Amino acid sequence: MYMNNYQQEGDYNTSLEVADGIRLKPVNDSSFAETLRKNLFDGWKNTLLTLLTAIFSLFLVYQVVTFVLANSWDVVYDNLRMLMIGQYPVDEVWRLWLSLDLASLLIGLTYGLWKGAGKSVAFTFGTVYLVFALIPWTTLNTSLNLATAIALIAVGYAAGDKVAKLKLPTLVLWALFIPFSLGLLTGFGGLLDPVLSREWGGWLLTVIIAMISIIGCFPLGVLLALGRRSSLPVVKYFCIGYIELVRGIPLIMVLFIGQLLIPLFLGGETGIDNVSRAIIAYTFFAAAYLAENIRGGLQSIPSGQYEAAQALGLNKFKLTFFIILPQALKAVIPAMVGQFITILKDTSLVAIIGLADFLGTARRISNNPEYLGRYMELYLFVAAFYFVFCYLMAHVSRYLERSLAKGNG
Amino acid sequence: MNKYVKYILGAAAVLSLSACASAETEGTAAESGNGTSASGETLNAVMDRGELNLGVNDSLPGFGYVNSDGDYTGFDIDMGKAIAAAVLGDAEAVSYRPLSSQERFIAVQTGEVDVLIRNTTLTTSRDTDVGLDFGPVTFFDGQGMMVPAASNITTLEDLSGMTIGVETGTTTELNLADQMDALGIEYNTQTYDDRNALIAAYEAGSVDAWTTDRSGLVSSFAVLSNPSDHVILEETLSKEPLAPAVLHGDDQWNDIVTWVVYSLIQAEEFGITQDNIDDFMDSDNPDIQRLLGIEGGLGTMLGLEDDFAYQAISQVGNYGEIYDRHLGPDTEFNLPRGMNALYQNGGLQYSMPFR
């Protein structure tokens, strides 16, 4: 265990970076036994610690493995559809598959064109599909759909790898993907049978709320951060007021305001369904925090950058958007991605306002009399699923951080 | 403490802080804050919509939950379906709105739901201050106490000095305090957010006893690893009559909900079930004829079709059938009818006469 940590640290932290981004790894020419002795059994204290840790780890692993093997997990696979898509009508599930296929193709294309972090994304998605496709209780139909998605990742990769000209179309497709999928899910405002948002649930609802909030809060956060540093007092104090007000209220309060007070003030038929109200609440809440992250980045830019840009005769707009912001955003990628991961996980709070997201659905299922008392399997599954995607986000952010740092010189 | 008032106060505090609260928003709040609806309004709205908006619980085993196919099911859900069948002729013409206990009353007040049937206890303040009207009690519940059988605890007095587990934010916590204060018993409470966590703590011995509504205690036997090691005390700590609620002011709509529930109880009394209801259509008994709408025109008086009770019973079943389907001997719960038996069997379920 210690040894693995050591090697990882060697990869990420202790490596020396020199100009041109060449990384020097620490020289490690000692033998395996030597490494073991040096890191794990160096004196009686370390030996004792190593043994205790080893015993505890083995005990933990044993317990987890026994738990995993001792349970039949039928509560998870019987309810897999509920967990993934909630009460989305069965007849309309093809729309979700189509969205997933499109996403898979785009992930493949991105991987083929830009390589890098696209690889982890493509492989994580591919693996998740493969695992679900190969689990024996998955229906043939689902397996085939998942196989299609895997094939599309591969096709996308091959196309992206060969044809470099696809970069622009891929970016355009990504930009169109979310509006298109949302349209498809809801039925394009009447073109297809409408599916109301209250029929969304499970992982689908979690992803929709998180994705729109993340995309929505980013421009809002940038504007608020810039506004807070503005020299115009009205803009400045409005932004400060907004940021501090929102940061001074718990997220649950913001959700309650969105969910309970808006309909109370505007009457029951506001025309805004409760999923949208939740998304709006998340977006505005996250924007305030993101703004503070970005402000940190803005403050880290040395004043020489401003002066140099002004000396070149760049106007305020160009100065901000071509010189300052790119550097500032790059500096705060870890903090921003941390915020995004928080949003993804915070979506589970919608359970208290009557929406059934991923965790809320697990909670619902654990209250089905057929599965009373079977909540451990459900919650473990939910935790594992959340972990895979949150870790993927963190991984991609680390990659972005490193690849962008290369250009820094 | 009335939750509604708390939220209004909270809202007022937030809004007075917020710079962006416009005068327009506050104006609308004053108008629609204490909503009541005029007679007939709700029925017309439901008819026009073609769907009943039903406020339900989505995670109470037996009463309201979602099954593996994603369908709402349970005792309360079936009561709502019966109302939809009676009003619209179709038990499936229901649009479900899962509500948390915090938001349930606001959903009624704003008209977001037509009927709230979500294990809501009928109390004076809810009937008056909160602005609800209640239909007949569909389920008589009461708060009970579960203790280990080996503990020799038989009365509440025996719990002196012990630690009792409750769920946070529920009336059970308040009832417990009231009862124990009245008896002058010193005790400790340990609160839990989640029923499963509470049961796990009880089984692990972190708390000596735990309390919730008796229906909840009974259903938890399915979760306990050794159900026979635990007993429920004879004493009850509170009355918990659970009833459907509608917005105060629409008397016609309240009448409809009331008489649909009565029709289910009356049907059980007559022995009319989902399967044999058609045999009763040529019954000579005038009481049955009036119930099923063959004569008397009772449905018209309510503003419904005359066969409203026929629709409810044939599509959902009578009270006993609904009870047995979700709580009876063939279910995990095997909950004795107790107070919920018909009056002639020693229970409290009693339908007013259909005349």
Output the keywords:
heterodimer, A: 409 residues, mainly alpha, MetI-like fold, 2 domains, two-stranded antiparallel sheet, 18 helices, 2 strands, disordered N terminus, B: 355 residues, alpha/beta, D-Maltodextrin-Binding Protein, domain 2, six-stranded mixed β-sheet, three-stranded parallel β-sheet, MetI-like (chain A), cell membrane (chain A)
Q: Briefly note the CATH topology name of the largest domain in chain A.
A: MetI-like fold
- Give the H and E element order of chain A: HEEHHHHHHHHHHHHHHHHH
Instruction: Show unreliable segments of chain B.
Output: 12-34
Distance between the termini of chain B: 41 Å
How large is the radius of gyration of chain A? 25 Å
Keywords (chain A): Cell membrane, Membrane, Transmembrane, Transmembrane helix, Transport
Family (chain A): Belongs to the binding-protein-dependent transport system permease family.
Pfam families (chain A): BPD_transp_1 (PF00528)
Subcellular location (chain A): Cell membrane
Provide an overview of this structure.
The complex is a heterodimer of chains A (409) and B (355). Chain A has two domains: 89-195, no CATH class; 199-409, MetI-like fold (Orthogonal Bundle). In chain A, 75% of the residues lie in helices and 1% in strands. Chain A has helices spanning 2-12, 32-40, 43-70, 74-78, 80-85, 93-114, 118-134, 140-162, 167-186, 202-228, 233-247, 251-266, 274-299, 303-311, 316-331, 333-346, 358-366, 375-408, and strands spanning 16-17, 23-24. Chain A has a two-stranded antiparallel sheet. In chain A, helix 10 packs across helix 16 and helix 17 (358-366) runs antiparallel to helix 18. Chain B has three domains: 3-32, no CATH class; 41-138 and 243-345, D-Maltodextrin-Binding Protein, domain 2 (3-Layer(aba) Sandwich), CATH 3.40.190.10; 142-240, Periplasmic binding protein-like II (D-Maltodextrin-Binding Protein, domain 2). Chain B is 38% helix and 16% strand. Chain B has helices at residues 3-17, 23-32, 41-49, 75-88, 104-109, 124-128, 171-183, 195-203, 214-220, 251-270, 286-291, 298-302, 308-316, 319-326, and strands spanning 52-56, 59-60, 64-66, 72-73, 94-98, 115-116, 132-134, 139-148, 163-167, 188-192, 209-213, 230-232, 238-242, 245-247. In chain B, strand 3 and strand 4 (72-73) form a beta hairpin. The longest helix of chain B has 20 residues, at 251-270. Classes of the chains: A mainly alpha (409), B alpha/beta (355). At the A-B interface, helix 11, helix 12 and helix 17 of A face helix 1, helix 2, strand 2 and strand 5 of B. Chain A: It comes from Alkalibacterium subtropicum. Chain A: It is a multi-pass membrane protein.
